[in-house]
Amino acid sequence: MATAKGYAAESADSKLAPISFERREPRPDDVSIEIDYCGVCHTDIHFAQNDWGVTQFPVIPGHEIIGRVTAVGSDVTDYKVGDTVGVGCMVDSCRSCSACESGLEQYCLEGMTATYNGEDRYDGSITYGGYSDRVVVSERFVVKVPEKLDPASAAPILCAGITTYSPLRHYGVRPGDKVGVIGMGGLGHMGVKFAKALGAEVTIFTRSESKVAEAKKQGADHVVVSTDDSQMEAAAESFDFMLDTVPVQHDLNPYLNCLTFDGTHILVGLLEPVDPPLEAGGLVFKRRVLAGSLIGGMPETQEVLDFCADHGITCDVEMLDIKNINEAYERMKKGDVKYRFVIDMKTLKAA
Amino acid sequence: MATAKGYAAESADSKLAPISFERREPRPDDVSIEIDYCGVCHTDIHFAQNDWGVTQFPVIPGHEIIGRVTAVGSDVTDYKVGDTVGVGCMVDSCRSCSACESGLEQYCLEGMTATYNGEDRYDGSITYGGYSDRVVVSERFVVKVPEKLDPASAAPILCAGITTYSPLRHYGVRPGDKVGVIGMGGLGHMGVKFAKALGAEVTIFTRSESKVAEAKKQGADHVVVSTDDSQMEAAAESFDFMLDTVPVQHDLNPYLNCLTFDGTHILVGLLEPVDPPLEAGGLVFKRRVLAGSLIGGMPETQEVLDFCADHGITCDVEMLDIKNINEAYERMKKGDVKYRFVIDMKTLKAA
């Protein structure tokens, strides 16, 4: 065991504060990593606040981890000391079910082990995330960060990036497709970059006229203000895909109506009951599809990093001193970040 | 114009009764058909009662039509007098949009012309359905009935059959797949036959223990009583496809939970808002798909008739004297038919 330093929430009401804790002993297939950067995902806030009632305190959030390899176990073949690597939303799975064998560990039939607030499959200990100085992860759940990528702005690719990249690839988005992206946060702005890089004609749907200029700046070919009925009518039945990154309840029906027949509405943010109710007729009469998608598997997480390097894609980030994590959470709740906070872990030493 | 005889509802409250009406003059691409049989679909009841508020009275229902060709227009190439043919749910479409060009006329971007209560694209007249002695239809919307098929029991293939066949084919159901069929009416019992013929392992989901024996008789490999929590738990995460034929509001979430990751829940009956609300997490966490599907295109409607002939599949029907159509509607509302009424149109002459 090695003593590590991190930032934790001790209860649903407490602010995050420095903590010392023990990282587990490395196993033969483990990579030990010194963390340089960690992105801040909205999910971190949900766990810190115990919004879903499943948090085990203290919780050390963070699942967009970039760092350098400091040691490797005797069975490790793909990594060596000094490599720049990433760790995303999961650190283990059963590795033998049909999902794991397909490289879709996020859908592991026995359940994946989350990077934080998960339960270690060997010793039952609770996993701790990337708001810390080091982490120990089995090499199957580590990815290589291409040299061409800026490590800090690559961090959010490990969650916000893969979450939007995976469904666009799974559903085969290709040149000429018309893709709508709903929501312009950490996920949405990455979705726009990926859809553009895949050759699609991309439209951002935003609720506010005031965000149109910013949406265009993000590379969207078109912007639809979704609160303007005439714009929504003009957009009817014209999209092949809608990438819906909105994490709170919203009316899906006007967006479904924007899909052409055989179009697909992909949910990557919403986890709650659909309210207002979904109109089944909107699916049936046009053979439309409502699909969900969760992050991505390990091969695809490596693929998205390589894709980003090849296409010059990074996340737009605001660097954060870990001392300011609580203020950052407050800003995120107001949507006040373009588009992802990334903690510079050097600031943890001073904290 | 030719005077025809039929059965019509004159208002939402009236019973169906005999009517004389004019069939339109045949055009060069038209096939004139003397109707032998017409299946009775639940949709007929909805239109007769004006449940959807769109009925134009008098309405002559019926879109599962089997008959013999009595005349063909000068441009008709595929049919000749004496052929046994079928007409399903649509009689026209724009014929030039991307959907029509793909043989998916039911999703015509300009809207298909329904077999009854539709508006003729040339003269604006209202279309009348198959509860009548004759019909005039453009050859593109006519299908050949293979000799091997019994014409009477083939009638419901034109709606109940194609509606269940089309999505099973579209989603590529194949040997080894596990398919659940929800609902055991006209659509459900055809879905079971098709899924079995495609090589799937088929489970019928029924709400009532009393229907288990009948479900087995229908060819299901397994039966799950959906009101039994322990049976539903045992079925969790094990199906590749669920074919949901239930036409009234029902809780989709327990069925979604029966899908494995990447599984697809296909709605072919439900047109109303989904209530209780759909749990978005049930889609996202397992990359599941909720899809809709509407009847089938013309090439596929021909395909399903040929498939039925090749596989010895027909609909289980109860022959009906058209005089008893109102009683049949009452029985259908109670689910009291195995599994489709088919009107013997000879009885119309006596009516």
TrEMBL record, chains A, B:
Pfam families attached to this UniProt entry: ADH_N, ADH_zinc_N
GO MF term set: alcohol dehydrogenase (NADP+) activity; zinc ion binding
InterPro entries: ADH-like_C, ADH-like_N, ADH_Zn_CS, CAD-like, ER, GroES-like_sf, NAD(P)-bd_dom_sf
Keyword Oxidoreductase among record annotations: yes
Required cofactor names: Zn(2+)
Domain Enoyl reductase (ER): 11-343
Keywords linked to the UniProt accession: Metal-binding, Oxidoreductase, Zinc
EC number: 1.1.1.2
Family: Belongs to the zinc-containing alcohol dehydrogenase family.
Protein's UniProt name: NADP-dependent alcohol dehydrogenase C 2
Provenance organism: Marinobacter salarius
